[in-house]
TrEMBL record:
Annotated SMART domains: PGAM (SM00855)
InterPro entries documented for this protein: His_Pase_superF_clade-1, His_PPase_superfam, SixA
Gene3D superfamilies according to UniProt: Phosphoglycerate mutase-like
Lineage, opening ranks: Bacteria, Pseudomonadati, Pseudomonadota, Gammaproteobacteria, Cellvibrionales
A GO CC annotation given for this chain: cytoplasm
Name this polypeptide is given: Phosphohistidine phosphatase SixA
Species of the source: Saccharophagus degradans (strain 2-40 / ATCC 43961 / DSM 17024)
Domain of life: Bacteria
GO molecular function annotations of the record: protein histidine phosphatase activity
CDD domains: HP_PGM_like
Amino acid sequence: MELFVLRHGHAEAEASSDSLRPLSATGAKEVAEIYSKCSDSLASVELILVSPYVRAQQTLSTLTALSPHLQNVPQQTTTLLVPGASSMAVIDYLYTQATECSVGSILLVSHQPLVGTLVDSLCNLDPGCYRMGTAAMASIDADVVAAGCAELRWLRHP
């Protein structure tokens, strides 16, 4: 499986709850920048999984507005991708997508600390050795979707 892990763009600090924090103008620019660096790689994406939080949804909307391909890719909003979610639960879900649904390439749009722990867990990396700032994207290859069985191909920042 080919996996792209995207952290949402910069968000506004103020909202009535964390889940309602919107993407800032800076965040929208970051998303456009990361898309310009990674657009060729994203042409293979078959499924998009996104957090229900406003800033993640807006990150995806910004990305799909730039990409005719991603506009036609099925999207699933899931609480598996909220900030405090379990990376192991995400890995289990990805395993199911790869084995039972034959999905070969997925884009995840989520938050810290989940994006960092997910990349670390899948690729058997020392925790925190790679920084995933806002709108950072990681590309991972996994012949077997399981902790410690994947390889980090690249990590790009806007």
